[in-house]
Design brief:
two-stranded antiparallel sheet, alpha+beta, Four Helix Bundle (Hemerythrin (Met), subunit A), 14% strand, elongated
C-alpha cells in the first residue's frame, strides 16, 4: 500500500467518526498475495452491545486478538460478523477430514434425531458442509502475509463504515425532518390554547349556573376556582421542556460523539413524556389532534433511533 493510500485510509476512518452510523451494514475487500486471494467480509445487524463473531482459517486463530483490536478501534455498536477467507490460486491442495470433529457431529446429530424422532436425511453431506470438518494442511502465517491480510481488513472496515454512513445520512435527514415537524406542531398549539382556556372557563360557568341559583354564586370564589383549574391545565412548562428536548436532539445529531443511538433514544423518551403530558392536560379536540400527530412523528423517530449505533 502506497503512502497516499495509507493517508486516504487514515482520513476515511477518522472522517466516519463524526458521522451518524446505522447499526446495519456490509463491507468487503479483496486482494492478492502471491498465489493466494485474500477476501474479507463484515456484516452487522442491530444489537444493544458490540458483539463480534469470527469466521477464520484454522491457521489464523492465533491472530484473533489482533483482528479484534483492528475491528474494535473502528467499528461501533452492533452484532457484527467478520469473515476471512484465503484461497490458493490454481494450486491443488490436499483436503482432509477432521475425523474427531466429524465423529463428534455425527454422534450428536444421530442422538438428536433419535430423541426427536426426526429423519436424519443425508446426514453425511450435512456434516461435510460444517466449517472445519474438511480442511487443508495449513502452515503458520508469516509476517508478510499477515501484513497483507491486515491491509485488506482495513479496506473492508472502510467499505463497511461507508455503507453504515450512507444509511446513517439518510436516517439523519429523516430524523431532522420529524423533530422539526414536532417543533412546528408545538407552535400550532398556541392559538388553540387561548381558545381552550376561554372555552373551559365558559363551560365551568355554565355548569355552575345550570345547577346553582345565580344569587347564591360567589363570583370571587368562582374566579379562584377557575384560576386553580387553569393552573392545573397549564401546559407552558411542558411546551418549554419539549422545545428544549427537540433542540437537544438536533444538537446531539451535530455532536462529534461516535455512538449517538443510546443518547438519542433517551432524549426521544423525554420528548414522549412531555407530549403525553400535553395530551393529558389538553381538554381540547384541536390540541389532541396535534398531539396525535406529534406522537406519530415521535414513533417514527424511535424506530430510526433504534437502528443507530
Amino acid at each position: 500500500m502506497t503512502l497516499l493510500t495509507k493517508l486516504k485510509t487514515i482520513f476515511a476512518i477518522h472522517k466516519f467518526k463524526y458521522m451518524l452510523y446505522s447499526m446495519t451494514g456490509f463491507g468487503n475487500a479483496r486482494s492478492s498475495f502471491g498465489e493466494k486471494t485474500i477476501t474479507v467480509e463484515i456484516r452487522s445487524v442491530n444489537s444493544k452491545f458490540t458483539e463480534i463473531r469470527y469466521k477464520l482459517p484454522l491457521n489464523y486463530r492465533d491472530k484473533e486478538s489482533e483482528i479484534r483490536k483492528l475491528l474494535n478501534d473502528d467499528l461501533n455498536r452492533g452484532k457484527i460478523e467478520f469473515g476471512l477467507t484465503i484461497r490458493q490460486n490454481d494450486i491443488e491442495t490436499e483436503s482432509r477430514i477432521n475425523t474427531a470433529l466429524f465423529t463428534k457431529y455425527f454422534q450428536e446429530l444421530s442422538s438428536l434425531s433419535k430423541n426427536l424422532n426426526i429423519d436424519t436425511g443425508d446426514i453425511m453431506q450435512t456434516i461435510m458442509r460444517i466449517p472445519n470438518v474438511i480442511f487443508t494442511d495449513e502452515v503458520n502465517v508469516d509476517e508478510s502475509e499477515w501484513q497483507a491480510v491486515s491491509e485488506v481488513i482495513k479496506e473492508a472496515i472502510i467499505s463497511f463504515n461507508k455503507f453504515r454512513q450512507d444509511e446513517g445520512e439518510a436516517m439523519e435527514r429523516d430524523l431532522r425532518l420529524r423533530i422539526n415537524s414536532i417543533s412546528e406542531l408545538l407552535i400550532e398549539i398556541d392559538p388553540h390554547e387561548i381558545i381552550r382556556m376561554t372555552s373551559f372557563k365558559e363551560r365551568l360557568k355554565k355548569l355552575l349556573e345550570d345547577n346553582i341559583p345565580s344569587e347564591v354564586i360567589d363570583n370571587a370564589r368562582f374566579e379562584q376556582e377557575v384560576l386553580y383549574y387553569l393552573e392545573k391545565l397549564d401546559i407552558n412548562e411542558e411546551k418549554v421542556r419539549l422545545t428544549q428536548h427537540c433542540k437537544y436532539f438536533l444538537d446531539e445529531l451535530d455532536s462529534s460523539d461516535v455512538q449517538k443511538g443510546r443518547k438519542l433514544s433517551f432524549i426521544s423518551q423525554e420528548i414522549g413524556r412531555e407530549v403525553n403530558t400535553i395530551g393529558a392536560k389538553a381538554y381540547s379536540s384541536s390540541i389532541q389532534k396535534l398531539v396525535v400527530m406529534m406522537k406519530d412523528e415521535l414513533e417514527k423517530v424511535k424506530e430510526q433511533v433504534a437502528n443507530l449505533a
